[in-house]
Write a structure and sequence with these properties.
It is a single chain. The strands form 6 sheets. The protein has an 8-stranded mixed barrel, surrounded by 6 helices. Strands 2-3-1-4-5 form a 5-stranded antiparallel sheet. The chain starts with 25 loop residues before the first strand and ends with a helix. It contains 23 helices and 27 strands. The longest helix is centred in the middle third of the chain and has 22 residues. The protein is elongated.
Length: 768
């Protein structure tokens, strides 16, 4: 190796690593290698070497970072130096080499196209490139006191690293045939479609993700392949710019009420033509602000996490929120998410095999969501089009989900698109309603009055309002009484306290700086649901006020503190009434739930469950085994209730061995039979191996004493005239009928309104 590249390891090599003032710089090596295609017609190595020399000469003139170069067979070795000012830390040190790689490729393409070479038309050929840092034993920049021998060792290690990177990379820097790639880049045609992202906490439309669609076949293009092909053809900058402009231009809404999730290749930050603020200007020209746009970073298979982190930092400094995709329940994937710490992360859910998550998948999903909340990363689940998966995602507490069905910009009518999204939202709201059924307290109890301003109000007027009303923490921006934005006092003060804050914002309309995507809930929404919606926001908005509306009009606001205090107190009260053995709600919550369903006036079902021979079992085998049976019965009832597709279920523990289940009456009888089946499947584990004679409550000897379950089911078709006490008496009569049967049993009846039921029974008693 020393002979092939003789001349570049000289005694003066130390000067490359020092700046003009003698301070150490970051030095490295690029190895560029020509690879012949399988069908080349024998261009001479001398011609290839001349082309490589031409590339090296042009690079040395274009960039001051190229300090030296030397040929190496069909390859080229470049010595490059980057000043420490370009990279303040080593975590972002891939930026300068990445930009240099872009420059090498562009320079090589121009040289090859100008002078031509038959090997460029042979398939399978190309030019590869690799880079390695010349560092000391500790992995840091060599000090100014380092001698030639230390520099020789560092450069040899850099040379070896560059070769490894070059050959382990799956994609070459330039792929032949070059002309064919130029044509495919020029002829490439695509359109933009928008995938809706919907909140799983209230069904509202949260945003759209723009995706490229092939112009000829009309199929969705894989983003990694899209950008990899652009990179290979040397058109990454052009394709990315075209796609960004088309996506911003075709966004279905420009009012700031939804967010645009805009994919961008992480590698684009290496392109020297990309300058800070270019995307920002396009967004502002479309009447959008940075907070309206979430950039989805797309990285390649062989791109480093440091490069993706540098891209994230580059765009976040411009005020954009960042998302990454492809997160899976795998250690490497989760570590990548934690290390990058984006604002959003798209969780793939194709690992859920069935229509709904099983117990293992459900626990894993809840664990992933708990991790995202701890790290303050907002999760977005894919696969929303699998409607059967929707209940599991809602029940797990997932924040948002993205539908795979998309609408091509300009081809689907606005009305059709609204209808499609409305159907999806209706399904979500139905599932959310089941999740928060029985939750006490609505946001109406937490309403605080709030000052409203129009979007054209000067910032100065809002600032004076905060000065005069020091207790106010936020104001609502509204139009005709409907909320369109929120401005918190703390964020206004941050803007005005900047170096140019007052001259920039003092006389501007408040609509230019307000939060156009605040949390807005109707007063009928439960506090539990609203608090979860608020905590699913971006980290910097977690403690913003929540706007409360009444029929769409601003009714007031509520602070996060008041909501969390209310939830905490409600849970303390619930814990006071919970059964200590099963953890299920006790008598007071049961009474409230029955009264609530009666007040709603909708048909519902009441299922009472009672264990037979439990007193005998408890006396025979002790209270510990008796407690185990109680817990098993409670778990059986809860499991059956959760698995019902038309759930809306409430499970309570009356006391002892008595339980109650309230649900919709649609499939209540089927659910009761399923409860018996599941109870029989597991109660054998608690069956006695030996026992003494058992007697029933009347003192009669039981031939085969065994634990069994008696169910009494009331299908309340009409709630008119009924009370909780009256239903309880009906259930007691039914339970006696069930207990007369041997083994597990069900007794049930349908009830109309109470007056009709009483008249029917009176006629039966009188024989009329």
């Amino acid at each position: 190796m020393m002979k092939e590249i003789e001349g570049w390891l000289d005694r003066e090599i130390v000067k490359y690593g020092l700046s003009a003032d003698g301070q150490p710089q970051r030095c490295g090596l690029f190895v560029v290698r020509w690879e012949s295609g399988s069908g080349h017609n024998g261009d001479s190595p001398a011609r290839v070497a001349r082309l490589l020399r031409l590339i090296a000469l042009r690079l040395s003139k274009l960039s001051s970072s190229v300090k030296g170069w030397a040929p190496s067979g069909e390859g080229l070795v470049l010595i490059v130096v980057f000043s420490p000012e370009e990279n303040d830390d080593w975590a972002s040190a891939d930026l300068s080499p990445g930009r240099m790689a872009f420059l090498i490729r562009d320079t090589a393409q121009r040289a090859l196209l100008e002078f031509g070479c038959s090997e460029m038309t042979a398939a399978g050929g190309g030019i590869r490139s690799g880079f390695g840092w010349a560092v000391g034993k500790d992995g840091r920049t060599l000090p100014s006191t380092a001698g030639p021998r230390e520099w020789e060792t560092a450069l040899l290690n850099a040379y070896e690293t560059a070769w490894k990177h070059m050959f382990f990379s799956s994609a070459p820097l330039i792929r032949f045939p070059l002309e064919e790639l130029r044509e495919s880049a020029a002829d490439f045609d695509f359109s933009v479609r928008y995938l809706p992202i919907v909140s799983l906490l209230d069904g509202s439309l949260y945003g759209y993700e723009a995706v490229p669609i092939g112009g000829r076949k009309g199929e969705r293009i894989d983003l990694r392949s899209f950008y990899a092909q652009a990179d290979q053809s040397g058109k990454l900058f052009e394709w990315d710019r075209r796609f960004r402009e088309a996506a911003i231009r075709g966004l279905p809404s420009r009012n700031g009420d939804v967010k645009l999730f805009l994919p961008v290749p992480a590698k684009i930050i290496f392109d020297p033509r990309l300058y800070p603020g270019s995307t920002l200007r396009r967004i502002e020209a479309a009447n959008l602000r940075p907070e309206h746009v979430v950039l989805v970073l797309i990285d390649g298979d062989n791109e480093s996490a440091a490069m993706t982190g540098s891209a994230l930092k580059h765009y976040r400094n411009q005020g954009f929120r960042i998302s990454i995709s492809g997160i899976r329940p795998e250690l490497d994937s989760l570590r990548k998410m934690i290390d990058l710490h984006p604002d959003y992360a798209r969780l793939d859910v194709d690992w859920i095999r069935g229509e709904t998550p099983d117990s293992v998948e459900g626990s894993l999903l809840q664990g992933l969501i708990a991790l995202s909340r701890k790290e303050q990363i907002v999760f977005i689940a894919g696969g929303l089009d699998r409607e059967a998966l929707l209940p599991g995602l809602v029940a797990s507490g997932m924040h948002y989900a993205q539908a795979e069905q998309s609408a091509e910009s300009g081809t689907e009518s606005v009305q059709a698109q609204k209808e499609r999204i409305a159907k999806l939202q209706a399904l979500i709201r139905a599932e959310v309603g089941k999740r928060f059924t029985g939750a006490a307290g609505t946001m109406a109890a937490l309403i605080n009055p709030v000052k409203q301003f129009s979007r054209d109000t000067p910032v100065s007027e809002v600032s004076r309002h905060f000065e005069q009303h020091r207790e106010a923490q936020g104001v609502v921006i509204s139009e005709a009484g409907r909320p369109i934005g929120l401005l918190m006092k703390e964020k206004l003060l941050q803007l005005l306290s900047g170096q140019f804050g007052l001259p920039l914002y003092w006389n501007r309309p408040v609509g230019k700086i307000m939060d156009t995507h605040p949390a807005i809930v109707e007063e009928s929404v439960t506090v539990d649901q609203a608090s979860q919606m608020a905590m699913a926001r971006e980290p910097d908005k977690l403690y913003d006020e929540v706007i409360i509306t009444r029929d769409g009009q601003v009714a007031g606001i509520a602070s996060i503190r008041s909501m969390l205090e209310w939830v905490s107190q409600a849970r303390v009260k619930a814990a006071q009434w919970a059964n200590p053995l099963s953890g299920l709600p006790g008598n007071e919550p049961i009474r409230r739930e029955v009264d609530r369903r009666l007040a709603e006036g909708r048909p519902f079902a009441v299922l009472y469950a009672d264990l037979d021979h439990f007193k005998w079992y408890n006396d025979q085998f002790g209270f510990q085994r008796g407690d185990d049976v109680i817990r098993y019965t409670a778990e059986t009832l809860v499991q059956v209730s959760r698995e019902r597709p038309n759930g809306d279920c409430f499970v309570g523990h009356i006391g002892g061995d008595d339980f109650i289940v309230l649900s919709s009456e649609i499939d209540a009888l089927e659910s009761a039979h399923e409860t018996i089946v599941k109870f029989e499947q597991g109660i054998g584990a608690y069956a006695p191996t030996h026992s003494e004679p058992a007697f029933d409550r009347s003192g009669q000897l039981l031939e085969e004493p065994a634990l069994s379950l008696s169910l009494s089911l009331i299908l309340c078709r009409s709630t008119a005239g009924w009370t909780a006490e009256a239903l309880s008496k009906r259930a007691a009569l039914l339970k006696k009928q069930a207990k007369r049967q041997r083994g597990n049993s069900i007794a049930w009846e349908e009830l109309a309104d109470r007056e009709s039921t009483d008249m029917r029974e009176e006629m039966e008693l009188t024989g009329r």
